[in-house]
Amino acid sequence: MTFFRSLFVATRLWFILTVFVLLFITAYAFPILFPLVQVAFVVFIILIGLDSWLLFRTKAGNGIFTRREVPDRLSNGDENPITIYLENRYSFRTDVEVIDEIPFQFQRRDVLFRARLNPRETRAIRYELRPTRRGEYSFGAVNVFALSPLGLLKRRYQVEQGKMVAVYPSFLQMRQYELLAATNRLTEVGVKRIRRIGHSMEFEQVRPYATGDDVRTINWKATSRRSDSQGAALMINAYQDERSQPVYCLIDKGRVMQSPFDGLTLLDYAINASLVLSNIALMKQDRAGILTFSDHIGQLLPADRRTGHMLRILELLYRQKTRFLETNYESLYASVRTHIRQRSLLLLFTNFETVSAMQRQLPYLRRLAKDHLLLVIFFENTELRNLLEQPAADTEQIYLKTIGEKFTFEKRQIVKELAQFGIQTILTAPQNLTANTVNKYLEMKARGMI
């Protein structure tokens, strides 16, 4: 049974059989050709037996060695590398076809690769997968079909069945921002250089004046004391960035975050941005926390910056589930007031399509902004923007563009109305969410707003 399960027929064999059928039909009309066709068919049967012997004379592990290399975790929304290693242990050149049984979530049936391997040759086949949902993904077997030089039959080698891989929020994007921040190259991903305005209020030390220091920071009392004891020398007050400030990402898991863009929901874009922003905040010595909510409060991770806190944030974001019900902002306000006592920066990831939808939640937003520094982040409809950029060719398109202009105008009105009550906003396209959020956070740090 193992032999027959591993035996497959190549396309070349079916083609030759078709030719023999035509030859036998021709020999029926011209009997003189019948003996020649019979001899050729017997030779063909012998070649099939020879091909079978070449492929199956070795044990399963001594023909084609195969190994698939998959990361322990996949990054949601990113291209993740997958590698399949092949080694030809036959004594002859072998053509191989590789079919990888990838998880059903990708809905792909084109993961087929072909290669030609010389004896003892090793080959690495690399491709990429882009998951769009968090959760567990199950990889099936790697099927390798080997053909001898005759190319009549195939032998299947099936390895690595049942590998389970978890898809986490975009940790590849987080590492990219972390690396660029460490090397001062954040401008490569759209993060602007922010000029610091004024001075931080957190005192560090009194030190001697150096060329280029701001003369407004001269400490005249310390200067006079030093002049009396060690000679004339100017002393200045040195300040450092304020640290250990609470930064919370409030993630709306309600119905408004269900809209898809490039395969990911707005919720997953918000989760990926929250992961990157939390990591940047920890690098800036601030404390990062997470609060999720929809029709009720989900999970709350208090702001902290102890060792291992980033891993706790990653695990919390990975396990977020929702039914995309109507959001309850009243419960959000009650939870923030109860659990977040210290004034903090609150980054609220949500979405408002109309001014009336925002006005229904405005009383709760104003109360949050009264006790904390609130930044509301919502999304631009990129499909509408593409529609508005195209010229209208008929009356129907004019009507659609008019409706689109109305919705786009309402988005800008939301920004203006929130600004009237001192609420910071970001209106962004989903693909620019992370860069724009990090930009705004760094701007607020530079301006001493938090």
UniProtKB/TrEMBL annotation:
Superkingdom of the organism of origin: Bacteria
One Pfam family here: DUF58
UniProtKB keywords: Membrane, Transmembrane, Transmembrane helix
Domain DUF58: from-to ranges: 205-376
InterPro entries on file: DUF58, vWFA_dom_sf
Transmembrane regions listed in the UniProt entry: 12-30, 36-56
Protein name according to UniProt: DUF58 domain-containing protein
Native organism: Spirosoma flavum
Taxonomic lineage from the root: Bacteria, Pseudomonadati, Bacteroidota, Cytophagia, Cytophagales
